[in-house]
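Task card 7
Instruction: Convert sequence to structure tokens.
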Amino acid sequence: MKRTVSAPAVPGGGPDTGGGPGSGGGPGGGGAGTGGAAAPVGRPGPSLRERLAAWSDADGGSLFDPPGPRGRARIAVATVVSLLVAAALVWLAVRQFARHGQLDAAKWNLFTQQAVIRYLLTGLWATVRVTLVSAAIALPCGALLALGRLARNRPVKWLAGLYVETMRAVPLLLLIYAFLFGLPSAGVRLPLFWQLVWPIVITNAAVFAEIFRAGVRSLPRGQTEAAYALGLRYWPTMRLVVLPQAIRATAPSLIGQLVRLLKDSTLGYVVSFLELLNSAKVLGEYDHTIVQSYLVVAAVYVVVNSVLAGAAGLLERRLGPARRRRRHRPATVRRTAAPA
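Output:
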């Protein structure tokens, strides 16, 4: 005769479930289902990081709620106060300039002369040339470095990573000094233009590499798998499928870095290259209009950077997913709409 041995009763729940009879919740048990089981003795509970991650996932991926009415009111008040403080600082600066005669018409009439305008435009064109040539070299070099960091070959990946991390850490001014003093001591002499361009290229290529790599990592994995399924190898997949999409995805970030590259050209004074800022410095020292020259050049840089920022916003709107959906929606409606 077979003897049946029943499990001892657990207070607050049935056997093996931790809940009440069936899977309900008795005293100390869980809710409906089997989720109310107590953790076994000796087993550690979830860590703080795991609980924060679970809470973040349940809250839509954010640890912070959007501001409520009071929060929005505080943000509005802080914005108004900041604008008032900025306006007060501008007013104080204008007042000080006026007290010291820096706003006199005689000091500004210089910038209406054709020779001065031509001189500043020459400096602006030098700045544009440095920016265009540096970008034309740094962008493809950055793309190659990004592909190297994503390569499966470990030596290639390690060397590309070493270059990127090193050049991102080295200040641009130090590289310019290396080209200015280090190369001539080794018997290598470059024109002033290239003494400024090559340090900018070396630094910005590393930054562009990280932008491209982030764009590649942001793409769905299915893009690469589909290319492999069609018979493409690694490098053709990156060149024909992945990299073009990464460029479109990172176009605003690339233009933002081009703005920084444009401002890097202001270090031309180190090598005595007459770009826009250095031209303004020479003009101000010659005619004793340092403040006026720098203010005019600052306005020019604001205009140029605003144009680049506007181009970045336009690209973001044209290449964004919402734009593509709007572009394809009318064709879908025309195909599916039935005549009345």
